[in-house]
Amino acid sequence: MQTSSDRHEYPAHWEADVVLRDGGTARVRPITVDDAERLVSFYEQVSDESKYYRFFAPYPRLSAKDVHRFTHHDFVDRVGLAATVGGEFIATVRYDRIGPDGAPASSPADEAEVAFLVQDAHQGRGIASALLEHIAAVARERGIRRFAAEVLPANSKMIKVFTDAGYTQKRSFEDGVVRLEFGLEPTDRSLAVQQAREQRAEARSVQRLLAPGSVAVIGAGRTPGGVGRSLLDNIRDAGFTGRLYAVNKALPPDRKELDGAAGVPAHRSVRDIDGPVDLAVVAVPADDVPETVAECGEHGVQGIVVVSAGYAEAGPDGRERQRALVRQARSYGMRIIGPNAFGVINTSPEVRLNASLAPRMPRPGRIGLFAQSGAIGIALLSRLHRRGGGVTGVTGVSTFVSSGNRADVSGNDVMQYWYDDPDTDVALMYLESIGNPRKFTRLARRTAAVKPLVVVQGARHGSGPRGHAVRATRLPHATVSALLRQAGVIRVDTITELVDAGLLLARQPLPSGPRVAILGNSESLGLLTYDACLAEGLRPHRPLDLTTGASAADFHAALSRALADDTCDAVVVTAIPALGEPPTDDAALAGALRSAAAATPSKPVLVVHVELGGLAEALSAAASTAPQPAPARPETQATHPAPPDGRRPPTATTPVTASTRATPQGPAVPSAPLTPVSLPEDAHLIPAYPAAERAVRALAHSVAYAQWRRDAADPGKVPGYEDIDERSAAALIDAQLTRGESLTLGTEETRALLGAYGIHVHRALPAPTADAAVEAARTLGRPVALKVTAPHLRHRADLGGVRLDLADEEQLRRAYAELTEQLGTPEELSPVVQRMAPRGVDTIVRAVIDPAAGAALSFGLAGAPSQLLGDMAHRLIPVTDREAASLVRSIRTAPLLFGWRGSAPVDTPALEELLLRVSRLVDDHPEVVAVGLEPVVVATHGVSVLSASVRLAPPPVRDDLGPRTLPAY
């Protein structure tokens, strides 16, 4: 039992698991009086050189006094942390608070000396950097603002640890020693360094699981059948390039192989394997897993995939069993996929790993796939397998991870791996829960900047699976989805949509805009495609009907002209079975389309096909002799933008005869023979869809993502306002929080806090009597509004709780009498008087700090649009000027702000400035956990905030700003 040795209780919240540079894990925890033997054992394994660098002199062993000093801490002025693996120390760090003269001191002294010692066998794993992050966080918590460190000039590794950390530093050299001093407040550079290290470490930890040099399947049956044996057979049949072992504790001592598994060595225990094991796939009963994990840890296994069930998905006892499993595995430096996992797949020719229950290895390709559900993982693999051959040919899976209960490795870790994985171009994720939405959003934004990330989320309208630990969030699912889209995530609703979008993004370029050309041999299918484009917000051109008798050459010519048209950003080709003698051959048509698309590889091409048995397969041929038309005179397709009323346009129809080749928008010319040409293997392959709506929806996702990429390249800036008084706001917040842990500010305090940020709230005076209302009107100036503020009537002008434009005392008294007669007594209504604001559009501005998702800014129109229709838009805080402008324009009712049906446009620049000021307030002061401005009247000139509320609370813990840690599920 670890105990405190001095003034403070043992700080259990400082304990953390961290991922190191090589992908292994270590436990960081405070050093206590119980660690004396561990410390001595650790020191004995440190080289004399490392000891010399630590103490500046030969120091072969620790004295009893040293051991006492290094294990007795008060956890305030003297703190020591250790990194442990398997319960043993591999590194230590400590700080001692000092005063201006360098002598030991107590608070309020805010400087401390810091020193490290890392076991030689573990140097180069990034342990010192991780310990520096954690000891710095501890020091900040204890009121220490600066660290000082003295290092010998020859100790270049330790100097590099300090200089690379990103803190603001001061360096001096005296008496042969380098003295480094640096502040501990996180800087942009220190956070960037920390996040870059986090990405490399977590990516490496996943790589060790997906690209092992050796695999042991623990629980493989002696005869074919069963989960463990199926896993072994799947790995062997996929052609795994590394060493494969079978482990079965019931194996007779004289048996060296399993029945039907010739060439796969079999053992009774992992300990009996002669050589390293990188990955263990565990398929034993849950009660036997702890013993198995211990054997793996002692043998040096790097990671495990636990297929076994019976954990958190089974109830409270299973949840505790799952926590114990994670703690045990991490104590040995191992990471876990699972438990209750379906497995992992890596199709790379250098690996060829199918450590999953999927009986067939998927086609290799450029799509990374993550699924929390095994059943959905099976469905996705099956669909990609069917359509990978039938739609995009070589488009298949690069890696697949089914995390099961995701007790350790989660979608965040896999995203870190995909970010710089050269074999993955598109990432598809099926999520049933997001354990750390704030981190997910941060990683998604960075990943989406370099490759598409498509996500479908299950359990959207209820709690997640019982096996998943999920942080509580107060935000509705629609808000979280909007924030994910802002981060560049392509949000889809079904796994069919997930596959449709993934196949397009994996093999076609991103469009430059929303303008779509439509051509094909069916007028009706073209019109359906046109309507689908309008429904998805695209700008379709007039469909071009080639008629049902169109040949492959006609398709080639029409597609070539459409792709060459500068007013076209993408092309949808519609095709039905050809009529006539002879019908167009599927392979010839596919070759013609691929040949035309290859000539203009910068624009995406999609095909909508109906009952064309061989067309999809032909379109996806990895290499072919695609038909190429002989040179003909250049022509330009006549394209027209969609009519503003959204009606279906007429179609251009050109007859095709057996002896002529139709040229749309021009005279028929004799058909030219098609010359076979060989296409390069990396030519863009064309995805085909069985329905126009599916093709167009996939294209719409691609268009929106491409626009996000362009916007992300220039995100705008967070403007500064000279009239913001941040100090006054901070002082007011501190004074209010002394009254309680969480509170809603009063009216005057709200006006003062918002006023410090240039947000002026119209004054409202209480009117408990008619005479008080008259006096309030004299104070404020007429005309005035009389409003009730009772919770059940607030913001409900439709119930008659508001009277406007009261210009004199008579009107005011009459309105007061009517309100009290119709709605209740003044005590029940709490009426107030407020000076009239200029007429305009009533809007709502809200900000909230969610403990899981972070700070979000929301905007919508007041009343039915937001309350009944949910027409609200959201952005993550801090908001830039471009994001504020986008926020205003992204609600469906935005036309009401811009002169809809002849009305006067309102002052949207003033509205955007208000949004930016609210964003600044919440970002500058995390104690402001909620702001509500309702209504905000946006007039033709200026905005008027008529009512406001602010809630304060101690700021939520920001684990994204602290040291790197693994989630403690």
Question: Could you please describe the fold and organization of this structure?
Answer:
By secondary structure, the chain is α/β, with parallel strands linked by helices. It has 27 helices and 43 strands. Helix 16 packs parallel to helix 17.
Distance from N terminus to C terminus (CA atoms, Å) equals 22 Å
Whole-angstrom Rg = 34 Å
State the low-pLDDT regions, or none.
1-6, 389-394, 622-683
Query: Average pLDDT across residues?
Result: 86
Which strand order do you get reading across the main beta sheet? 1-2-3-4-5-6-8-7
Helix content class: 25-40%
Secondary structure tally: strands: 43
* Estimated structural class: alpha/beta
Question: How much strand content do the residues show?
Answer: 15-25%
Which descriptor suits the 3D outline?
A: globular
Sheet with most strands:
8 strands, mixed
Number of helices: 27
Keywords:
disordered N terminus; alpha/beta; 33% helix; seven-stranded mixed beta sheet; eight-stranded mixed beta sheet; globular; 969 residues; 43 strands
Q: Which helices and strands appear, and what pairs or packs with what?
A:
Blueprint: E1 16-19, E2 25-30, H1 36-44, H2 48-55, H3 64-71, E3 78-85, E4 88-98, E5 111-118, H4 127-141, E6 146-151, H5 156-163, E7 169-174, E8 177-183, H6 188-210, E9 214-218, H7 227-237, E10 243-247, E11 266-267, E12 279-282, H8 289-299, E13 303-306, H9 316-331, E14 335-337, E15 343-346, E16 353-356, E17 364-371, H10 374-390, E18 397-402, H11 411-419, E19 426-431, H12 437-448, E20 453-457, H13 477-486, E21 490-492, H14 495-507, E22 515-520, H15 523-535, E23 539-540, E24 544-545, H16 552-564, E25 570-575, H17 586-599, E26 605-609, H18 615-619, E27 625-629, E28 652-653, E29 660-661, E30 669-670, E31 674-678, E32 688-689, H19 692-713, H20 726-737, E33 743-744, H21 747-755, E34 764-766, H22 770-780, E35 784-788, E36 802-806, H23 809-823, H24 826-829, E37 831-835, E38 841-850, E39 854-861, H25 864-867, E40 872-876, H26 881-889, H27 908-924, E41 928-938, E42 943-945, E43 948-952
Parallel strand pairs: 5-6, 9-10, 9-12, 10-11, 12-13, 13-14, 17-18, 17-19, 19-20, 20-21, 22-23, 22-24, 22-25, 24-28, 25-26, 26-32
Antiparallel strand pairs: 1-2, 2-3, 3-4, 4-5, 6-8, 7-8, 15-16, 15-18, 27-31, 29-30, 33-43, 34-37, 35-36, 35-37, 38-39, 38-41, 39-40, 41-42, 41-43
Helix pairs in contact: 6-11, 8-9, 10-14, 11-12, 12-13, 14-19, 15-19, 16-17, 20-21, 22-23, 26-27
